[in-house]
Amino acid sequence: MENNHEFSDRPLDPLPLQQDPTFEQEVQRLHEYTVAARWVLVLLLWLTVGSFSLWALRSDIRLLSEHFTWASLRYALSLRYNPMPAIGLTFTVSMTVAVLVWQSRNILFGMPPAERSRLEQQLLRIRQQGQSHPLHSWIVQSPRLK
């Protein structure tokens, strides 16, 4: 009996597709787009929240460049004195560090099985939805895969 994923209502079974070489390439391509999307998010955060936070802290940064002390840095980034710039800068830096750690872990230790399974399930949903999914033309019908 043929397993037709496009028209079935039952849960998707990724086991037969894992042997397919194009499936592996598509999972890798989906992972590459996930990495790119995370870096685009970090870039947008730096261009918006990060730049506004740094602009709000410009007088403190000027003072720090002339007379740096750890106390003045702590005071400039305190939530009591500059709450919004401190929160914005902390959020932007933490997102950057999170993406760096996530990508470094994937490079050094490989993709964890849970993440691999999530990507496979997402790819199966993209394939099942077909051309109406926004990523279908980039992931499934990519000219690089053919």
TrEMBL record:
Keywords, in A-Z order: Membrane, Transmembrane, Transmembrane helix
Bilayer-crossing regions: 39-57, 84-102
Protein name per the record: Poly-beta-1,6-N-acetyl-D-glucosamine biosynthesis protein PgaD
